[in-house]
């Protein structure tokens, strides 16, 4: 109604409020971003520079929650800071500086002057009577000293920030400071005190629906329980870490936010393309007028023809360039999502293997060395529980990042996958391999492995087949992969438009420059054929002159 009545200023403020309500309800989500971008649009229509750049500040802070959006967050925050410095709006300058300081914490190595910049920002907050910004600056200082492994200084600043945050009743900042105090306790090897602080922070983060904070708190809580010897709770919290990670990085909401900024660039390119086409039409009108004016001159006719030909070539080049840029942005978006998923899987797999897995192995060795001291009734159950925990940890770690894939390559990894699935399923899986597979790039090997894994899982879950056959055929130009089963069959006309798993397979194969064909018939099984160009799969070698 406000937009229809052209009350754009009120509409911009309403969209800003709507964004905050969405965030309170759903946490980090695309609906909040849609609202903030709509608010930005209507502040622009009103010519309200203060509201417009304040929204830049809000969007920059929101993007900073996601590591993959930090580059865009920095762009928004710097533009906001430049405007507020020109207009001498110091409270907003302080907020912009804090947003940029927050992003700087994630850089490796950490910028050497970060502590000094944060102290300056904290003094400015005191000077201009901004207690909220002062509390946030102190909290960032605490984290900076934690990253520098100076727990005493971190405790000092986190405690000061917590005092101000409690006075202001800022729940998310209170939770953040409890988290930092928990890290200080863990630095001092006070694991129980650390767990108590983490739990306070976790309860506040859960109330705020902050998936990012809950993910980090779960990871550190699992580590603290592991240090106390409580491996059951350590295992439970490790599973929570995995769950929150999947929710944050793999959810459609998070992917949509990452794509949103790229989509806005694509739309900008589309507008530029429209302008080029409009200029082309105007040029054609002008060329017609020139043609009429110089019809009596042969030289003029040839000149006009030449100009028109050149203009068409330029227009065509502009169009091709715009289409290439759009495609590059789409590929960049897909690469960011895939790298984020695989990177987070690898990190969690390493944490499980190097942390919890090693601790469980140490316990098993200790118990085996003291078998004679334990009652007989305790030996067998205890060994059984430890074996099951070790096996479960290895299975989770291997599923996140298969050891055979990174060590031996694609074909041995697929053989290992088929062998393991044969051990736990009634369905018989067969892998046939023809031709010598050359060394593949890590990205291509992981994508092919995930695609085959997804197809086998679908066949085992839904097809009710007796036999599933995987064939891998390699020559110098092409790699062909087929997965066939003798199960129930499927209606792919409907599944291709509904299944997110199938869409995921198609996007990965398209990214590798390949094609996938699906064929299913009720009662006669399912067949999937994938064709991939070898040129895009092979590992590239860097030659040093």
From TrEMBL:
Coiled-coil annotated residue ranges, if any: none
Entry EC number(s): 2.7.13.3
Keyword Transferase: yes
InterPro entries, A to Z: HATPase_C_sf (IPR036890), HATPase_dom (IPR003594), His_kinase_dom (IPR005467), Sensor_HK_TwoCompSys (IPR050482), Sig_transdc_His_kin_sub3_dim/P (IPR011712), TPR-like_helical_dom_sf (IPR011990)
Gene3D superfamilies for this protein: 1.20.5.1930, Histidine kinase-like ATPase, C-terminal domain (3.30.565.10), Tetratricopeptide repeat domain (1.25.40.10)
Pfam families from the UniProt entry: HATPase_c, HisKA_3
GO CC entries: membrane
EC category: transferase
Highest taxon above the source species: Bacteria
Molecular-function annotations in GO: ATP binding; phosphorelay sensor kinase activity; protein dimerization activity
Stretches that traverse the bilayer: 285-307
UniProt keyword annotations, A-Z: ATP-binding, Kinase, Membrane, Nucleotide-binding, Phosphoprotein, Transferase, Transmembrane, Transmembrane helix, Two-component regulatory system
Protein name as catalogued: histidine kinase
Organism: Dyadobacter fanqingshengii
